[in-house]
Amino acid sequence: MPDFIPLVYAPLTEQEQIQRAKSFLDSCNRRRTVREFSSTPVSKEVLECILKTAGTAPSGANKQPWQFVVVTEPALKHQIRVAAEAEERESYEKRMRQEWLDDLAALGTDWHKEFLEVAPVLIVVFSVAYTKEGEKTRKNYYVKESVGIASGFLLAAIHNAGLVSLTHTPSPMEFLQKILNRPENEKPFLLIPVGYPKEGTSVPNIHRKQLDDFVMWK
Q1: What is the mean pLDDT of each run of 10 residues along the chain (218 residues)?
Q2: How far apart are the C-alpha atoms of 160 and 50, rounded to whole Å?
Q3: How far is CA 164 from CA 56, 133, 137, 209, in A?
Q4: Where are the alpha helices (DSSP H) in the chain?
Q5: pLDDT at residue 23, as a whole number
Q6: Separation CA 58–CA 88 (nearest Å)
Q7: Distance of CA 197 to the CA centre of its chain
């Protein structure tokens, strides 16, 4: 029989629910992707808290199929930047269709990724396809979905802690597995620079979809 414990749940009034929901919405509405970082260090205690928050995400069969590698060593960050820029340059110059390049142009991005060295922290998210217990291999379930949800929790926690971030997905990303010496059952999922914005940082004037654009009531 599975081991169950009582749910810790504190009911809220409808007004409290609305207040909390609006407060969280207001906070998340201020979250922006940042590409200009200060080199100011981030407290290890803060990093531990946001990573623990990511670890609370639901996952298929509670397998928690994720691994987070926190990179602060300048030499490693430099290696990652060099490898990422090589892949990104190839993508921008040869792999991407013109429509894709046009969409990116509105955001002011190119293959140069200085932020990978300037940001004080890089969090590399790996998905874990299976685990080994001695000679036995145990499969993980809904890996991409689970790691995607955990990454969402992580981004919200980063913002909640007063930090900024960027979701970077250089493609292909196998170089991260090699540089960080990760085993074959782990695959790079997301590269997230984390830190504080550089003074005077500006961000693209984007507009988010309105509720009716992406929600349907039945």
Answers
A1: 90 98 97 96 98 98 97 98 94 90 87 96 98 89 98 98 95 95 96 97 93 97
A2: 9
A3: 21, 38, 38, 22
A4: 14-29, 44-54, 74-90, 98-105, 115-118, 143-160, 174-179, 211-214
A5: 98
A6: 32
A7: 17
- The CA distance from 169 to 188, in Å, is 9
Residue type present at position 170: P
Q: Which domains does the chain have, with CATH numbers?
A: 34-198 (3.40.109.10)
* pLDDT of res. 4: 94
CB 199 within 8 A of CB 36: no
- Side chain identity at residue 173, one-letter code: M
> pLDDT value at position 62?
96
Left, alpha or beta for 11 (phi > 0: left; psi -120 to 50: alpha)? beta
* Residue 179: other Cβ atoms inside 10 A: 18
Contacts of 117 (CB under 8 A, 6+ apart): 74, 77, 78, 81
**Token pair 């913002």: residue:** 159
Q: What is the pLDDT of residue 166?
A: 96
